[in-house]
Amino acid sequence: MFDLIAAGKQAKQAARALAKATTEEKNRAVLAIADAIEACADAILEANARDLAAARERGLSETLIKDRFDLSRRMPGIIADVRKVAELPDPVGTVISESTLPNGLHAAKRRTPIGVIGMIYEARPNVTVDCAVLALKTGNASILRGGSEVFHSNVALAGAIRGALQTLNLPNVPPDAVQFIESTDRAYVEQMLRLNEYIDMIIPRGGASLHQFCREHATIPVITGGLGIVHIYVDDTANLDQAVEIAFNAKTQRPSVCNAADTLLVHEAVAAEFLPRAIERLSASGVTYRAEPRALALVGGLAGVQAAGENDFDTEWMALILGLKVVNGLDEAIAHINAHSTFHSEAILTQTQANADRFVLEIDSAAVFVNTSTRFNDGSALGLGAEIAVSTQKLHARGPMALEALTTYKWVVIGQGQVRP
Amino acid sequence: MFDLIAAGKQAKQAARALAKATTEEKNRAVLAIADAIEACADAILEANARDLAAARERGLSETLIKDRFDLSRRMPGIIADVRKVAELPDPVGTVISESTLPNGLHAAKRRTPIGVIGMIYEARPNVTVDCAVLALKTGNASILRGGSEVFHSNVALAGAIRGALQTLNLPNVPPDAVQFIESTDRAYVEQMLRLNEYIDMIIPRGGASLHQFCREHATIPVITGGLGIVHIYVDDTANLDQAVEIAFNAKTQRPSVCNAADTLLVHEAVAAEFLPRAIERLSASGVTYRAEPRALALVGGLAGVQAAGENDFDTEWMALILGLKVVNGLDEAIAHINAHSTFHSEAILTQTQANADRFVLEIDSAAVFVNTSTRFNDGSALGLGAEIAVSTQKLHARGPMALEALTTYKWVVIGQGQVRP
To answer: What pTM, to 2 d.p., does this model score?
Structure first.
């Protein structure tokens, strides 16, 4: 039986060593992990094949299997991504702010690792590698709990990672820095969420229900997110050619992800012109529509358009479906978004600067876009390098979580004998 | 009956308005609050007198009553502190980082209010004012739950604050921005901890048990802290004159607070010289000592020194008691701290730079001090202006929480029609 308490203790101990590791030591470890995954590729793919066979036996959809579980065409990409992490700047040790006080004390906020990061994730086995490597790069130990559908793949990947650290044999980057929960028993998830003695932060990656479960049960700080009901508002002065392309991109480029558009809000002054053009462009990719009465009055006769149901504007579609609503203007758009958004990603398309400014100020989402696609709410798309998750909560990290989001800081105060008066 | 759901909705609504408030509007509100507290001082002190009388009737200690509950000599200080908040720079709207990507997108992390901040605090009524004003200055609404011992004082203070906003009548700083739970029923604390629909962050201020209760029951991110088992390590090269004064300051200046020293660790090479001198200085202020065997062997004969009991090195004294331990050197000091600390504040006193560096790197506390007193772990002492709490957790804010800790950020991405390839 897997002993999570023991794993927690080992991870905490390893985190103490990792806090002392130099950037060069951490990068050596990251590169050794890439090499080990490369060297173990056959064994990893064999384990993956067992997971795929079991999934097919259970009758899971071939799309799901190919899109999420199957590593066969992904290994070179996974290995290349690990090597890229070695090239990213190390945030640990950098000074966030510093000052010398009138009494001569020098006070600095210095970036440090967080300690032990718990990751709870679902079906993609490459997350095992991402999380272990990004945590390591930032001097953190990790405790990983992957989805049961790819259990054998995860065991093989975690084994390669720990094996690489074993062989490398650096005292400050011990193999115990990466703990993988070798069990599919769901009880470990609950135990993990309450292991505040050893785990400093929990990052769930998966659907909204996983995030909610974590929020309900954790005694450890949790970074939640995972749900994006995403709005695009087309203002009366929007460049409609651009607006059609942005709506097309945000809806169709990758409909199953959280920054894909769910609802199109259109200013009444341009709705009659814009909606048919947008529908013509998007329908070619198979999009269908749920329209509220005013939108339905304009485009109800077009193929694929149906009346919106009661909860359609509170649904994250994850599919080629788009809500349509005509609004009187910016005020109604903002009110609709505040009432229906999950505050992940929203966009305004407008040439009116004052409206753009108001939208940016009044929409309280993790990322707000002006005249561009919500699909850019992503670590690599925003130039941050690798991301470990996208947060929709407001504490610690919001939006794409890159390396810095895996660090905290300590106050370092240097004196020459000062005492407090 | 107080309706917490209604209060939550009102606070959320008010937070939307506050997010649009200018710095000037927020400062006007802060100054109006100071004026109102000044104008209502008699009524506030009358309410306070009722609380004091009830406390005396219940037989609570006079020290507690004078130190925590009694506002009579504190009003001018409270009012002056509010006025100072108006002078602090407003962090909202500042840009944390920005960049222009190769595709022309401009991406910035812009500081914003958090939204609605829930505060759960104990006996000091001035916390009502601090929290309401610091939240307001950073554009946040607040829901305040104060301790029952000073309930009438809190009601009077909250009334003055809301009255000031009512009279000021600024649409972006509505009175609903400050919600005070007008009930001493403890059930509201639990309800508040699960009100994640309306509250974005909970800050408890009080003892360790309050923090633990919040961590256990909250579905909202909580900033925990409140417990400081604080260590000072006197290295073999410490300036012993300074070390005596720093130990004296850290232990005796304000023994009931969380950054006061609890344990003195002394290098064996200087223990025989240092311990008797430190004891001579501290005993004059009434300090007594709990010594482990090696320390006891050196100073066991001195007045006030007794053998340490089993849990004495795991106790936050909050009193004029100090643990004494002789260690072989830095390694043993670090090991002791890692085993017994609550990671709030720790100090090393040394002239050996390499030892100072190791201590700063390897001690994982919110604040680490070199050659100065742990009493400086405090917002105003570190030049941050007012503080709302001291965090010992690692996410969002660590150490003294000043205005910035009451903000989050949003990503603002400005394009010219870009779509994701």
So the answer is: 0.93
